[in-house]
UniProtKB/TrEMBL annotation:
One of its GO terms (molecular function) is transaminase activity. This is Aminotransferase class V-fold PLP-dependent enzyme. InterPro entries: Aminotrans_V_dom, PyrdxlP-dep_Trfase, PyrdxlP-dep_Trfase_major, PyrdxlP-dep_Trfase_small. The lineage of its organism: Bacteria, Pseudomonadati, Pseudomonadota, Gammaproteobacteria, Pseudomonadales. Coiled coil: none annotated. Keywords: Aminotransferase, Pyridoxal phosphate, Transferase. The keyword Transferase applies. It comes from Pseudomonas hamedanensis.
């Protein structure tokens, strides 16, 4: 058994890991996909950084942070991704980066087409519709068949590319926030390249729990969060642009604080959360020391499989995400098939079993309840979820 798989089942180890985190008493949190907790040591470092910036003010920021420290932090982030520092620029979150990539994409002409699907984040879909209006392009919207498979996902995109030869740009989400479906990004990217379609990748939920090589994915444009599975403070994300494609994204609204050949010109220039950025080296060190995405992903997948394997075939429960290991991660959703109101069922999970979940809407397959264990979630809590689902179904 591989080390990460064996460790994923080691409750004693993960209890020790959980001791590094503080949590208020209350419901069992199965909505860890919103954002992750910072460790106690990261919080302490964050507080020290806040005090330093508050007392030194612009003296440190102008003389040291802007000139050197921020560049070092950026380099460390690039090393995590095995890319060059010139390919990444900090943003406040993935959404901000994705909006910048979309609104500044300059290769659309009137009459071209852009593609979105039912599983994309609503803000991304809105930005793509806005871009189409501004450039005189047409929006093509598709729905994915349910249940999804590796082949069905590729077939849906191939059919769209064939049916709409004027497609030039598409949105793609690595881990869909509605159901947790993991898209086969590399295969879709290769197919899109064959038809001359660029991809803007939403990696918000992927970084830190899904192992991938960014350059090997074949993606030129992407936005990511650092506050979900990496463990950074809120307000930290980044944008990635492959160096050979930088000219295809205009400087953001004529940004001139950086040269036009600098990726940082593709983000809005403003005062960032400097204390949070200063915390990032410790965050990355803790992420690596745990084993990175392979170790975190193995644990989250193990917790996911504990409850999915127990309820997958039960009448009254539909698990919305397939069991193909290429297509799932820790996030997985379900639906009570004998109850129309999924929000009411989520409230019953909370009120009757002390389990906090969230309902996601927008997928063509219908609303579902998203279950997202975290790195401090225990196997016993997954057993409680199984008992609750058995009794509520």
């Amino acid at each position: 058994m591989p080390d990460n798989t064996r460790r994923a089942r080691d409750e004693a180890f993960w209890m020790t890991f959980a001791d590094r985190y503080d949590a208020q008493p209350g419901p069992v949190n199965l909505e860890n996909g919103y954002f992750g907790r910072m460790s106690r040591t990261v919080i302490e470092e964050y507080h020290r950084n806040i005090e330093l910036i508050n007392t030194s003010n612009s003296v440190y920021v102008r003389q040291r942070f802007e000139q050197q420290d921020s560049l070092d932090i950026r380099t460390q982030l690039a090393e995590l991704l095995s890319v060059q520092a010139q390919c990444v620029a900090f943003t406040r979150n993935a959404t901000e980066g994705l909006q910048s990539l979309i609104r500044n994409y300059n290769r659309l002409q009137p009459g071209d087409q852009v593609l979105i699907c039912d599983l994309e984040y609503d803000t991304v879909k809105g930005a793509m519709r806005w871009l189409a209006r501004q450039r005189g392009a047409e929006v093509i919207e598709i729905d994915h068949t349910h249940p999804a498979s590796f082949d069905s996902l590729l077939a849906t995109y191939r059919a769209a590319f064939i049916a709409h030869p004027k497609l030039k740009l598409m949105a793609l989400t690595h881990v869909t926030h509605r159901t947790g479906l993991v898209m086969p990004v590399a295969a879709i990217a290769a197919l899109a390249k064959e038809y001359g379609v660029d991809i803007i990748l939403d990696g918000a939920h992927a970084l830190g729990q899904v192992e991938f090589n960014l350059e090997a994915l074949g993606i030129a444009f992407a936005g990511y969060n650092l506050h979900k599975w990496i463990g950074a403070p809120l307000t930290l994300g980044f944008v990635y642009i492959a160096p050979q494609r930088l000219a295809d994204i205009d400087p953001d609204m004529g940004e001139t604080h950086f040269p036009s050949n600098d990726i940082r010109a593709r983000t809005s220039y403003s005062t960032p959360n400097i204390p949070a950025l200063m915390t990032l080296p410790l965050v990355l060190e803790e992420h690596r020391s745990l084993g990175g995405a392979p170790a975190k992903g193995a644990r989250l997948n193990y917790l996911r499989n504990l409850w999915v394997s127990a309820v997958r075939h039960l009448p009254g429960i539909e698990v919305m995400t397939p069991d193909d290991p290429r297509l799932y991660c820790g996030i997985t959703s379900l639906r009570f098939t004998r109850h129309d109101d999924q929000q009411a069922m989520a409230e019953r999970l909370l009120n009757e079993y002390n389990l906090f979940t969230v309902v996601r809407h927008g997928a063509a397959s219908g609303p579902s309840i998203r279950i997202t264990p975290g790195l401090t979630t225990t196997a016993a809590e997954m057993e409680l979820l199984v008992r609750a689902l058995n009794q509520l179904r």
